[in-house]
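Consider the tokenized backbone below.
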């Protein structure tokens, strides 16, 4: 089987790339493990967001690849318009997503269906198939060997885009690249992103990106009797940015104000990878219940955590709360000192690092654990979606998008769905342009 462009992975990045290629008249083939498009994006709330400008991007994500970051921010508005042009519902723009970003809510399932129709109008989607090995000819990537219900086959293509969604589903890679114990984090995503793109890209000569030990995820309650996709949003402790979060020594270990997704990464490196989130009634009322995440879901996240089997405590005094938390294995005297220190007004330089003290009873605590949704590290690539080797040169015939394009962000988080909507189409355009140039060169 042959095609102009082979896209490995039918998540948001792969689907957007294939849809752009199909719109440009290319014969495109998509290989997807699942029975539908979207990957983890199909499980999301459909929030399309990123930093509002380059300056904010550099502040939030100073160690991220600057070229890729600027392309992400600069491509945001065009990506939103592309969604509208597909006939998909897009909300009004709002400010303050994750405390600093700009966002629209989109009908993610409507968008995936629009992309599927566009792809299948001129190409093919092989559901329940996985790529196992890239095909190399004369140092260039020219297709892949894939497997499916009917066995193995080769698909030859002018170019290949890797968009397999990261490596968060593979415990061995998570342990090796993020750190010992990280493989035990609950997977807050679909189970199919197993690092296929990373491994195949590296075998074909692509370099690894920076940020391999960084990832996106959120604090979840601990322990949990179960974790199903429908539990991902209600169990997420988004409100931790307004809380005090301590480790088993009773000490704060992160600047909670930077966001739950940053504290989540710090927690995986604490002893036992367990912490405790503490707040007073005002924070519970205004953040855990009263200020819903933009998907509109209003739930009491502490009640949901309790119902799911997590350790949750409520007390009429701080002394009683400390006693309850100490019974979970947390150093009570040090926790008492930590909470007492919050009563002292912080110096101006430290004001952003100090959460509000616990003042309005009743007081609340929930044991939390880190989770992983997608990885920030992956293959090295440029803003055109070309996979790069160790010398920074393009690997002929190989392109990369979405979470497989590593280094866009590191520790700081500036977007999820938007990665696919910006870099997927870029990779498709670059891949088809490269193939056209090669054909012209071959004709002399």
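A designed sequence for it:
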């Amino acid at each position: 089987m042959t095609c102009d462009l082979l896209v490995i992975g039918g998540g948001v990045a792969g689907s957007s790339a294939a849809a752009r290629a199909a719109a440009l008249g290319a014969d495109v083939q998509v290989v997807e493990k699942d029975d539908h498009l979207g990957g983890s994006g199909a499980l999301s709330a459909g929030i399309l967001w990123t930093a509002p400008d380059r300056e904010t991007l550099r502040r939030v994500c100073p160690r991220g690849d600057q070229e890729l970051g600027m392309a992400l921010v600069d491509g945001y508005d065009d990506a939103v318009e592309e969604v509208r042009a597909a006939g998909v519902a897009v909300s009004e723009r709002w400010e303050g997503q994750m405390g600093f970003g700009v966002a629209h809510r989109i009908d993610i399932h409507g968008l995936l269906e629009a992309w599927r129709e566009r792809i299948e109008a001129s190409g093919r989607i092989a559901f329940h198939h996985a790529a196992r090995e890239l095909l190399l000819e004369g140092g260039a990537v020219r297709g892949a060997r894939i497997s499916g219900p009917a066995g193995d086959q080769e698909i030859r293509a002018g170019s290949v885009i890797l968009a397999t969604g990261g490596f968060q589903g593979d415990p061995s890679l998570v342990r090796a690249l993020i750190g010992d114990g990280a493989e035990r984090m609950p997977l807050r995503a679909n189970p199919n992103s197993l690092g296929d793109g990373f491994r195949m890209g590296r075998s074909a000569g692509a370099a690894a990106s920076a940020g391999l030990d960084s990832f996106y995820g959120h604090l979840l309650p601990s322990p949990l009797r179960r974790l199903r996709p429908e539990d991902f949003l209600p169990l997420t402790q988004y409100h931790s940015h307004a809380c005090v979060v301590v480790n088993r020594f009773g000490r704060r270990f992160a600047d909670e104000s930077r966001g739950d997704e940053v504290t989540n990464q710090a927690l995986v490196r604490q002893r036992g990878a367990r912490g405790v989130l503490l707040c007073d009634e005002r924070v519970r009322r205004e953040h855990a219940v009263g200020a819903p995440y933009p998907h509109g879901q209003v739930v009491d996240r502490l009640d949901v955590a309790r119902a799911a089997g997590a350790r949750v405590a409520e007390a009429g005094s701080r002394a009683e709360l400390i006693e309850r938390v100490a019974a979970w294995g947390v150093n009570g005297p040090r926790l008492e000192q930590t909470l007492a220190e919050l009563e002292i007004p912080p110096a101006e330089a430290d004001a952003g690092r100090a959460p509000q003290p616990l003042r309005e009873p009743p007081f609340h605590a929930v044991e939390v654990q880190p989770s992983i949704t997608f990885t920030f590290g992956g293959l090295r690539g440029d803003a055109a979606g070309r996979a790069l080797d160790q010398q920074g040169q393009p690997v002929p015939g190989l392109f990369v998008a979405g979470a497989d394009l590593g280094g866009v962000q590191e520790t700081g988080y500036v977007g999820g769905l938007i990665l696919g909507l910006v870099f997927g189409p870029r990779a498709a355009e670059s891949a088809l342009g490269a193939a056209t140039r090669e054909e012209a060169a071959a004709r002399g």
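The domain at 2-213+376-443 is CATH 3.50.50.60 (FAD/NAD(P)-binding domain).
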